[in-house]
Design brief:
It contains 19 helices and 9 strands. With 561 residues, it is mostly helical. Among the domains are: 202 residues, Serine Threonine Protein Phosphatase 5, Tetratricopeptide repeat; 139 residues, no CATH class.
Length: 561
């Protein structure tokens, strides 16, 4: 039973209320009230499903954009008039966003909404009969609220601490340290009541070890958030995960099964998963954009992208016609998202299985024959100046590096509108396109916390001054991961730069790059399509204008006035 949360979510009323920027007078999201609240654990799950659904709807879409597009990990260029969208992607890429940036504003609103709705759920849970199920449910909701406040603290700094449903009084921002302390306290209080088992029964819900993983992430960044490092606390939280189930509950996947963790068939069987967000193409909402946005438009047929029917065509000598689609349904996904040369440079070990998440160079059908595209000279190259621009040509699909400048100029974010432009940039297929989905939804569950992250987190904390435990060293932890990812020799020494590079390889496309770059002092580096802005105040996002309009007590972050 891969999709436990699907059943939970189907029990939830479809509409979700919105709380605007921490004004938390939230109407009920279900027919339940404190007077009529049912008694069973199944009803608790139905009520809590509202929170998981709202979180899912954001994580693989808007949350990915603000945490990944603002780094060198990914970029979504323009193609003439395609993918301009008010320059929102360019502004994220180049760190030129304003306090009215739509994705940043949405992230504030969504996270505020999640906090407000969680407060409502907690209010209703407190009205239920006492018992173990109630205590566990409350702990799960407080852990999820802690996660949402963590994201708010990470992205916006200090935010209002609104924790009581029904209070309409607008609050000023707490300091970043106060938010940190609140989340830490909430998680510690919740941990004894959280379930410890992993697997199907608790899949998609916070467990005790998800809470420890979140604490480890907070402590790893404590110096950024509060000015005070907490390396030993970070190591202790990591050890709590490592020791789960007598040290056997979580484990690294083998080299041969690494990509299975991100496939449409993934689920609770994988022992690296500490906390995942379940996705299901049969449910409404919750777009999982990775496949659509990251697959080159000429590769939809090969990967049986949405609408194409597996097994109904031959791969022998196919030539894709960019004008008609050659009769194949949806063979041109619309997403052009790719990576920068700076990020791809970390994938420099030819023996590393993680290299295979990238589509690079000449492309072939599964039988080894080349993928050929039929177009014209002018459509292939908009700068073609010969006398046969309308002449049909066939070319072998070749994905090329993004480059630090384009044919339209060194400072252009626009790649142009021709085949050469559309085939520029190495594409990520870590989350393999789902061949059975006919919508933007996919079946790939998305990990938030994985065991490999815990090992790299502990290694980094030791390197930065924490006390080693359990016989581990930074070197042994990094080599333990590398042993199941590459056949290259183990490292003889390890540096912080090595750990950063390993995090890039291991956690790409998992919404942690911004967090890592800030901690390692790499967020101000130049990259990609003329990203040169080095303003350090952009390590946190602005408070949206819309939020301040609703709550005038909010003050703007420095640099954005």
């Amino acid at each position: 039973m891969k999709k436990l949360m699907r059943n939970i979510m189907l029990l939830v009323m479809s509409g979700a209320a919105f709380s605007s920027c921490h004004k938390l007078d939230v109407p009920s999201t279900t027919e339940l009230t404190s007077e009529t609240f049912p008694k069973t654990e199944a009803h608790f799950n139905a009520l809590m499903g509202t929170i998981y659904t709202l979180f899912r709807n954001d994580y693989a879409t808007n949350h990915f954009f603000v945490t990944s597009q603002a780094t060198n990990e990914s970029v979504l260029p323009m193609y003439a008039t395609d993918w301009v969208d008010g320059n929102r992607y360019m502004d994220l890429h180049r760190h030129t966003w304003t306090k009215d940036h739509p994705n940043i504003s949405s992230e504030w609103s969504i996270m505020s909404n999640l906090i407000g709705n969680t407060n409502q759920v907690l209010f209703l849970l407190k009205g239920a009969d006492d018992g173990a199920a109630k205590n566990t449910s409350i702990a799960e909701m407080k852990t999820m609220r802690g996660l949402f406040y963590f994201y708010m603290m990470d992205m916006f700094g200090g935010v209002p601490l609104d924790t009581v449903y029904g209070v309409t009084e607008l609050k000023e921002r707490a300091t970043r340290t106060q938010v940190f302390n609140f989340v830490e306290s909430e998680l510690k209080a919740a941990i004894p009541f959280l379930k410890t088992a992993s697997g199907t029964a608790n899949y998609g819900k916070p467990t005790r070890y998800m809470a420890y993983a979140l604490l480890a992430k907070m402590y790893l960044n404590a110096e950024v958030y509060t000015g005070t490092p907490k390396w030993n606390e970070c190591i202790a939280a990591c050890d709590s995960v490592i020791n789960a189930g007598g040290g056997t509950q979580y484990a690294l996947e083998s080299r041969s099964t690494y990509f299975n963790m991100f496939a449409p068939t993934n689920g609770p069987a994988f022992k690296e998963f500490i906390f995942n967000i379940p996705f299901d193409p049969s449910t409404s909402g919750g777009y999982m954009f990775y496949g659509r946005y990251d697959l080159n438009r000429n590769l939809g047929v090969k990967y049986r992208y949405s609408g194409s029917t597996p097994g109904t065509y031959s791969f022998n000598q196919i030539v894709l016609n960019q004008t008609t689609g050659n009769g194949f349904t949806n063979n041109r996904p619309s997403g052009p998202r790719c990576t920068t040369n700076e990020f791809y440079a970390y994938f420099n070990d030819p023996n590393d299985i993680r290299n295979n998440q990238w589509l690079t160079g000449l492309q072939y059908w599964p039988d080894g024959s080349p993928i050929m595209i039929r177009t014209t000279n002018s459509n292939y190259d908009q700068f073609y100046s010969g006398g046969a621009g309308s002449t049909n040509i066939n070319y072998h699909l070749n994905l090329t590096p993004l480059g630090n400048s384009t044919r339209l100029g060194a400072n252009s974010y626009d790649l142009g509108r021709d085949e050469l432009a559309w085939n520029t940039g190495y594409r990520n297929i870590k989350f393999l396109p789902d061949p059975n989905s006919t919508t933007r939804n996919q079946n790939n569950d998305v990990p938030v916390f994985r065991y490999s992250d815990i090992l790299l987190t502990k290694a980094e904390a030791i390197m930065r001054g924490g006390t080693a435990t359990l016989g581990h060293t930074a070197l042994s932890l990094v080599n333990a991961l590398r042993a199941v990812r590459t056949t290259s020799a183990a490292l003889g020494t390890v540096t912080l730069s090595d750990i950063y590079a390993e995090r890039c390889r291991e956690l790409s496309w998992e919404c942690w790059m911004r967090n890592d770059m800030i901690r390692f002092g790499r967020y101000e580096d130049p990259w990609g399509l003329s990203k040169t802005n080095s303003e350090t105040y952009r390590r946190i996002f602005p408070i949206p204008t819309s939020a301040i309009a609703v709550n005038p007590k909010l003050t703007q972050n420095p640099g954005y006035n």
